[in-house]
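ok, trying the design again with the full structure, not the truncated one.
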């Protein structure tokens, strides 16, 4: 093993993660053993639970009232959504995304969590020989699309980001946006003592939130494919979907748990962990396209600080001098505004800066990607002139997506070797044992994980569908 790789693994295993992003990378690193991940998950969850103020958590005190409580919450959110639809039909504007740029910002900021969708249930697949866990395992397998890339939630979201051209924008994210994703990953690798917390978290996550309904509605209006969000409205329904399964699992495991009071306390803690990190509602409330534009410009400054003409000055500095320190970019923008190179709340074509980056003959054409220009366009335009429809959405929806054709031409033979080992074994337990590691959050959306999921379903729950080896 190369020295660099050894040092990196040593850092990971010695608890040297300094932030949520590094923990995110740790849990998704296939070179780190599940044993080490379980240790890290336990330590992390203990610290997260210590932060909870249990008395302030709104949660039923009686196990028998959970179903009614969830149904009432579902009904309330549906009623609020109907009120939202009435406002929209009366002519009011969108309430979440005023422009395509804001929708992009939202999709980027929730991406760490969406890229580990369902991860909190991974540990349950180890309990496959206990029927009481089957509802949870089936929920996880359905999050994995039963091994089909078109239905695998992470594949769907990755494909959405890729098709929109925003799949690399997570480089602009602050550490806080990885917090909730790490909570999910830690639960996915948690030891058995956290089973009540896992199913409590699952109960909260599978409910139908108002923000999901409105997000789905407004993305469609903007011409952005909302399949991922619509899927979570349908598959999570409280009648026979994941929300219903979440309630049934609680009732079944509660009957088997000796210490009923402790179970309820731990269940409540798990439910409360849904609020750790920056959730969708908070992201929507704090959308700031200007801040996102500045991050884009600062990233460009790292490349452009030595290539501009030195004769033109803004505020006693040349462009190269402004760009030599990314933190000075805000000052440069202020000078461009003062010199009328950027005219806010008007057609961007009236701004010299926009024409420089957007016109084919502009001196900066090609510096910014189409997506970056979309975001800058809406930033300059303001609410009255921003884009209300993604211009290339028709092409996205009418053409088959790349996910239909993805295939790895570079293989280390790992999948072939796994298939041979599984097919040669006649023992069900051994087969399951060999497949389980590839259902993990770091693997399930890859070729080997998709095949493993299909095989796992075929072996344990053949009634869920017909699959090929």
């Amino acid at each position: 093993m190369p020295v660099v790789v050894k040092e990196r693994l040593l850092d990971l295993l010695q608890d040297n993660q300094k932030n949520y992003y590094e923990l995110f990378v740790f849990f998704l690193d296939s070179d780190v053993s599940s044993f080490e991940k379980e240790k890290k998950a336990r330590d992390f969850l203990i610290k997260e639970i210590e932060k909870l103020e249990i008395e302030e958590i709104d949660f039923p005190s009686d196990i028998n009232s959970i179903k009614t409580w969830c149904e009432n919450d579902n009904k309330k959110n549906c009623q609020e959504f109907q009120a939202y639809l009435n406002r929209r039909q009366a002519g009011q504007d969108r309430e979440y995304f005023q422009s395509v740029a804001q929708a992009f910002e939202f999709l980027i900021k929730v991406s760490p969590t969406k890229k580990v969708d369902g991860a909190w249930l991974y540990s349950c697949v180890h309990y496959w020989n206990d029927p009481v866990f089957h509802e949870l395992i089936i929920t996880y397998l359905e999050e994995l699309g039963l091994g089909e890339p078109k239905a695998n939630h992470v594949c769907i979201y990755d494909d959405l980001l890729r098709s929109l051209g925003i799949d690399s924008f997570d480089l602009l994210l602050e550490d806080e946006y990885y917090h909730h994703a790490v909570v999910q990953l830690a639960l996915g690798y948690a030891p058995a003592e956290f089973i009540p917390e896992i199913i409590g978290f699952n109960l909260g996550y599978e409910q139908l939130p108002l923000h999901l309904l409105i997000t789905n509605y407004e993305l469609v209006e903007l011409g952005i494919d909302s399949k991922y969000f619509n899927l979570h409205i349908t598959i999570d329904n409280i009648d026979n979907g994941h929300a219903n399964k979440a309630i049934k699992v609680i009732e079944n495991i509660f009957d088997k748990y000796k210490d009923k009071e402790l179970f309820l306390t731990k269940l409540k803690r798990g439910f409360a962990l849904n609020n750790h990190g920056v959730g969708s509602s908070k992201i929507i409330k704090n959308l700031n396209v200007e801040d996102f534009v500045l991050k884009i410009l600062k990233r460009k400054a790292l490349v452009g600080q030595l290539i501009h003409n030195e004769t033109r000055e803004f505020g006693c500095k040349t462009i190269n001098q402004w760009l030599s320190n990314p933190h000075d970019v805000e000052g440069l923008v202020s000078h461009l505004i003062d010199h009328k190179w950027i005219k806010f709340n008007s057609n961007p074509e009236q701004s010299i800066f926009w024409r420089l980056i957007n016109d084919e003959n502009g001196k900066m054409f090609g510096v910014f990607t189409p997506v970056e220009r979309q975001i800058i366009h809406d930033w300059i335009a303001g609410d009255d002139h921003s884009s209300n429809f993604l211009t290339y959405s028709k092409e996205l929806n009418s053409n088959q997506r790349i996910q239909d054709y993805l295939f790895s031409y570079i293989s280390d033979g790992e999948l072939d070797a796994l298939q041979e080992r599984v097919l040669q074994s006649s023992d069900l337990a051994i087969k399951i044992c060999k497949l389980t590691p590839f259902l993990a959050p770091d693997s399930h959306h890859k070729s080997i994980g998709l095949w493993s999921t299909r095989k796992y379903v075929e072996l344990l729950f053949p009634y869920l569908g017909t699959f090929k080896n």
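Keeping the full-length input from now on. The beta strands are 313-314, 317-318.
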